[in-house]
Amino acid sequence: MTDVPEPVRKCASLLKGTKSDTEKFAALFMVTKLVKGKDCNAAGKKLLFEAIGFPFLKKLLVSKDLPNDCPPLVYKSVALSILTCFCQEEELATHKDIIDAIPTLLEIVEQADDEDYEDNLIVVSEAYSCLKSIASHEPGQQALLATGAIPKMSQIYSAQSFQTDEALHLIVLLVKQFGVVSWPEDPTAFHALIQRIALDMETDDTERKYELCRILADILITCRREIVINSLEGQIWPESLFKGCGDILKAKIGPKQRDPALHLIATTLQVLGIQWAFMDEQKTFFLQLLQLGAIEVRMQMDEKKLETTFKQAELLTCCFSILEHCIEYMATDQLDLEPKEKQTTYTALKGAFNQVLAVLTRVSQDKIRESTNPKDKKFVFAIVKVLSAWLAQETTAMRPAIYKLLPFMLKVANESFQELKTWRAGTREGEPPIDVLRIMLPALCHFAVEEDARRVLFTHKQDEVLLESLEFYFSIAHWKRPPIPRAERLKRMNEPDPVPTPEQQAEMKVARSAIVALCNILMNFTVLEPKKAEDGPTFANLLKFVVENLPELKDTPDNLVIHGNLAVLGLLLLKQQSKKVKQNDFSICRYIQATIRFLWDAYNIDESNDPTALVVSIAYKGYWSDLSELWFLGMQTMCGVLPLVPWLSEFALESGWAEGIVKTLKKVKIGTLPANVKSAYEDFLSQLVDVNGDVQAVLKKADALRVCRNHRMMDLGKKLFGD
């Protein structure tokens, strides 16, 4: 009590001695003067808060039963003026009584347009000040979220009420804290808010335009993306953002304006995808984006001290994100560019990535590479990520420098992968870490066929990490229902099977694409490093993983491409490790059955409009661009495996596949069988005849003679019927 100023102590005693509300209210005018004075410290405010008693302040805020000598608004104004001062102290701002008053404060700001408040807008201002102070501390933030403050503030801003910027700043403060959880499942409030801000940003020509860019980026990044994307019909805010950002790109602006604009563009691309850049069905905006992103990267990374570059991490990360989206889109070959545009684009990208490479090389040799500062680590991850996106498309340039830098890139990528694994195994709080290794996989597909790069990969045991990554992503793609505790099994027996949540489905989609890229790399390793594939422990473990897990994979359309990749990877490994395969190994038997199913189901006649035409089956048709080469490689590799593991031929026979091929080809019209399909089937059947004495009789019985004559299968005919 000694550190409480004397006037404050006197006032507190006076308040405690009051016998009626009228006396206490009169004393409040003295409190108002004291709490705003520089002598009233935290201890003094606490003493006054306890002396007044919160129930009395709340009564002034909400009760209609007050003395008639003052309008109710005056009581409210005095109470809020005092509360605002109290809320500046953390101990009071987080006090249970003040937290409980949040709904009352929200009600006041929601009624800002009511006639009652028109003459005393200071009441609304004070209520906002209280909310702002409360929102500065974790208990207040949690309470504001729980009372639906974000949708309410969104409604206030959308309706353009008085002091709406205060509402907007509160929203930004809360969404930055809570991310996706900030928004309810119903996206109405989100759309209304973004529409209002986007329209303001589009039409404003002052510096506020750029402040709104930053606010839009902060809010957009927290949205429930799947829900927002699926409810965009009829929404015009994407167009407002497109026009507003387009105007900025055309204007002469400095860094103060350019930075928030780039931040907003990067975030919008993240939420809406690259198609947003083509809203006017022209390529101008896209090319401007690409140029601006590339120039900014070059400028910010050009021969500066690493500390200076790292200070620009946030801006550069936005530029990287823009470039990644642009590069990914260009790789789809949907962009029709004139020769001059192609040259300009390539020159801009090459200039930017030469600079990225130079900076990353310096990072790899500097003490900053060991930094444990999360911001520094995140930025290094972002540099490796954007360079990997470029290397996935640019397969020839900068090779010596890349090979030199590759060990460091792998170290960073592997570290990020381990962080993601740890995050998934733990409580999964906050945003998941980005797996840079997954982003790097398309580039590693190219490195896998380059001898110098492959040497680096094996020297650094990257094959082991890739197997670990395959196991990790398979565990996500191969979703299983959560186990039910034994005590509840009987009770929940009739429950419908659970399905993955939208978030889990999105994770599974990402995992499937990672598995395809991983299989691609590992197939190249197996073919190009036969000795390692034959003797290496990693490759033995890889084969074990494939044969044990492929038969377990659910037979769904989404899994077809990974089924094919794992089946063919298994065949390639089986060919190299044939000496170690034990006859009738149960897991190999199940694996071969799953592989035969993939190869057998690709072609048929039953689903053709013409009963004499062989067609790709309906199940495979939508994925055939990803499966066609795999199928032919699978058939070819099966031919290579049969002489080495002849007992596998029993499965082709017992399953009815060999006989089925002949029966199907018998119905195919002469001259219509594609040459490559004919070769694949003929080589396979010929190989079966060579390794298994029982095959001849089965094929002859199925009328192989007619098939050989109709489709000119000379080699198979000679094996079955002689010259």
UniProtKB/TrEMBL annotation:
Annotated Gene Ontology cellular component terms: dendrite
InterPro entries xref list: ARM-like (IPR011989), ARM-type_fold (IPR016024), Neurochondrin (IPR008709)
Any one biological process term the GO annotation gives: neuron projection development
Highest taxon listed in the record's lineage: Eukaryota
Pfam families: Neurochondrin
PANTHER family: NEUROCHONDRIN (PTHR13109:SF7)
Assigned protein family: Belongs to the neurochondrin family.
Protein name: Neurochondrin homolog
Organism: Drosophila mauritiana
